[in-house]
Design brief:
This protein is α/β, with parallel strands linked by helices. It has one domain (7-304): TIM Barrel. Helices cover 35% and strands 13% of the residues. The protein is globular. GO terms for molecular function: oxidoreductase activity. Belongs to the aldo/keto reductase family. The active site is at 52 (proton donor).
Length: 321
C-alpha cells in the first residue's frame, strides 16, 4: 500500500491524503519548521485553523518548502477553518481572505466550518484569533442569530470564487447534517470530528459516509491533548495503557500511537495527529507496513465509552447533547 493513501472527495474528485499533520497547539515559534519538516518526512496534508493562531508562521513554512523545491503547491493539501465569530455572510469571505494572506496561498483545498455555532463578531483589529469569549475579562460567550444556512451559502460562494476547492463541516451532529443536506447547493466534502477508541461515533460516521462525505478524525489519542486544558482529561484512563493497545503494539512491534492511528486509517478515516518531536512525527506516518485484522479493529472499537473532550458545553453551548 502507498505510504500516502488518499480518499476521493465529492463533488470535486480531488484526492485528500488520509494522513496529515495537525497544527493545533503547535507553538508559533515551532510552526514554520514543523511544516518544512513534515513535508520532508513525506506528509502532504496540513490541517490549520485561524483559531490556532499560527497561520502566519505556517505560511512562512509553506513558502520555505516551495522555494526550496521540497514540494509544489499542487502536491499538497491545505485545510483551514472558519471561526465561530465570522459566520455572517459578510464576514465569511473576509475570514478566508485573511487566512489565505497569512498562509501565503491563493486558494485552500478544504475550508471547514469549525463549529456549528455563530458567535458575536469580533473585529480582527481588536483581537485575532477571536477565541470563544467576546470579552475575555468578563468570560462572556455571546451567540449571534445567524442560521447555518446563511453561513453555508457564503461558503459555497467561496468555491464559486475559486478561493476554496472543497468545503466541509466540523463538530456537527447528524441532525444538523441532515438539515444542511436539504438545502446545500454544494454538499459538504468532509466532516471532521473528535474520534478515537474512547469516542468512536460509528453511527454518525456510517451516516455521513452513506451521504458521500469523507471523515477526518482529530484528537486520535484521546485525553492526551487535553490534560492541560480540561480537568476530566487528567482523570480519564490513558488510552495507550489499555491492555489491547499495549498487546497489539507489542505483537506487531509498533508503538501504541501507531496502533491507534492504524485503527483509524484502516477504517478509511483520515487523521491529523501533531507532534513537535521529529521521531514521533516520522513514526505517526509509518502505518502502512502492517495490518490489523477485523477482530483486532473490533477489539479496539470496543473501548468506546462516548468520552468527549472537545465540548462547547463547557461554554454553555451543549451542541452534542
Amino acid at each position: 500500500m502507498s505510504d500516502n493513501p488518499t480518499v476521493k472527495l465529492n463533488p470535486t474528485g480531488q484526492p485528500m491524503p488520509l494522513v496529515g499533520v495537525g497544527m493545533w497547539k503547535v507553538p508559533n515559534d515551532k510552526a514554520t519548521d514543523l511544516v518544512v519538516e513534515a513535508f520532508k518526512l513525506g506528509y502532504r496534508l496540513v490541517d490549520c485553523a485561524s483559531d490556532y493562531g499560527n497561520e502566519k508562521e505556517i505560511g512562512i513554512g509553506l513558502k520555505k518548502a516551495f522555494d526550496a523545491g521540497i514540494v509544489k503547491r499542487e502536491d499538497i493539501f491545505v485545510t483551514s477553518k472558519l471561526w465561530n465569530t465570522n459566520h455572517a455572510r459578510k464576514h465569511v469571505r473576509k475570514a478566508v481572505e485573511r487566512t489565505l494572506r497569512d498562509l501565503q496561498l491563493d486558494h485552500l483545498d478544504l475550508y471547514l466550518m469549525h463549529f456549528p455555532i455563530a458567535l458575536k463578531y469580533v473585529d480582527p483589529e481588536v483581537r485575532y484569533p477571536a477565541e470563544w469569549y467576546y470579552d475575555p475579562n468578563k468570560k462572556e460567550v455571546i451567540p449571534e442569530n445567524i442560521p447555518i444556512q446563511e453561513t453555508w451559502q457564503a461558503m459555497e460562494e467561496l468555491v464559486d470564487a475559486g478561493l476554496v476547492k472543497n468545503i466541509g463541516i466540523s463538530n456537527c451532529c447528524a441532525g444538523l447534517i441532515i438539515d444542511l443536506l436539504r438545502y446545500a447547493r454544494i454538499k459538504p466534502s468532509v466532516l471532521q470530528i473528535e474520534h478515537n477508541p474512547y469516542l468512536t461515533q460509528e453511527t454518525l460516521i456510517n451516516y455521513v459516509k452513506s451521504q458521500g462525505m469523507a471523515v477526518t478524525g482529530y484528537s486520535n489519542f484521546g485525553n492526551l491533548s487535553y490534560v492541560d486544558l480540561i480537568p476530566k482529561a487528567k482523570t480519564a484512563p490513558i488510552l495507550f495503557d489499555q491492555p489491547i493497545i499495549k498487546e497489539l503494539a507489542s505483537s506487531k512491534n509498533k508503538s501504541p500511537a501507531q496502533i491507534v492511528l492504524k485503527w483509524c486509517v484502516q477504517r478509511q478515516i483520515a487523521i491529523v495527529p501533531k507532534s513537535n518531536n521529529h521521531d514521533r512525527l516520522a513514526q505517526n506516518k509509518q502505518l502502512f507496513d502492517f495490518e490489523l485484522t477485523q477482530e483486532e479493529l473490533h477489539k479496539i472499537s470496543s473501548l468506546n465509552i462516548n468520552l468527549r473532550f472537545n465540548d462547547p458545553a463547557d461554554f454553555d453551548l451543549p451542541i452534542f447533547d
